[in-house]
Amino acid sequence: MLRQDRKKVCEESLSSRIEMMNVGVSTEPCHARWELETDAAVLQRRQKQIDYGKRTPGYQCFLQQVPKAQRQPGLHPQTPNKNRRYSRRSWDAQIRKWRRALHSWDPPSQPLQAEGCGMDNLLEAMDSTPLDDWLQALEPSENQDEE
């Protein structure tokens, strides 16, 4: 095959691939493509899981520290949409991801204080425990080695 013929075949092949590409653009509004969940038992179970997550200390701290107007998708945890139809596996994965993201807002093993969960309060609680006591608690006891 001549060099020019190969070039022509490559160009035709490339152009045919470009024409067949699907870019996933739709003229429908985004929400119109979603199917809504109609099963009352599924909606009730999902709401129960959401309520459980919203009762956690991490979620309470998140509410106090980040006003709704300042929340950014991808940066802050977003509650999954219980009304959208998902497979059970997909829903469980979304809830798990949301709950794990909420743990980043958990106070460090201290009960919530009346003033709230601000960083100043968390740092004060951390400073109240001497480092030596904390390190000593981590060291294995001598009795465990003998057993």
UniProtKB/TrEMBL annotation:
UniProt keyword list: RNA-binding
Keyword RNA-binding: yes
Annotated Gene3D superfamilies: Histone RNA hairpin-binding protein RNA-binding domain
GO terms under biological process: mRNA 3'-end processing by stem-loop binding and cleavage; mRNA transport
Segments forming domain Histone RNA hairpin-binding protein RNA-binding: 38-107
MF terms in GO: histone pre-mRNA stem-loop binding; mRNA binding
Region (Disordered): 68-89
A family per Pfam: SLBP_RNA_bind
Keyword RNA-binding: yes
InterPro entries hit by this protein: SLBP1/SLBP2 (IPR026502), SLBP_RNA_bind (IPR029344), SLBP_RNA_bind_sf (IPR038294)
Any Gene Ontology CC annotation: cytoplasm
Protein family membership: Belongs to the SLBP family.
Subunit composition and interactions: Monomer. SLBP/pre-mRNA complex interacts with ZNF473. Interacts with the Importin alpha/Importin beta receptor, LSM1, MIF4GD, TNPO3 and UPF1. Interaction with LSM1 occurs when histone mRNA is being rapidly degraded during the S phase. Found in a ternary complex with ERI1 and the stem-loop structure of the 3' end of histone mRNA. Associates with polyribosomes. Identified in a histone pre-mRNA complex, at least composed of ERI1, LSM11, SLBP, SNRPB, SYNCRIP and YBX1. Binds in a cooperative manner with ERI1 to the mature 3'-end of histone mRNAs.
Main function: RNA-binding protein involved in the histone pre-mRNA processing. Binds the stem-loop structure of replication-dependent histone pre-mRNAs and contributes to efficient 3'-end processing by stabilizing the complex between histone pre-mRNA and U7 small nuclear ribonucleoprotein (snRNP), via the histone downstream element (HDE). Plays an important role in targeting mature histone mRNA from the nucleus to the cytoplasm and to the translation machinery. Stabilizes mature histone mRNA and could be involved in cell-cycle regulation of histone gene expression.
Protein name in UniProt: Histone RNA hairpin-binding protein
Organism expressing this protein natively: Capra hircus
Lineage: Eukaryota, Metazoa, Chordata, Craniata, Vertebrata
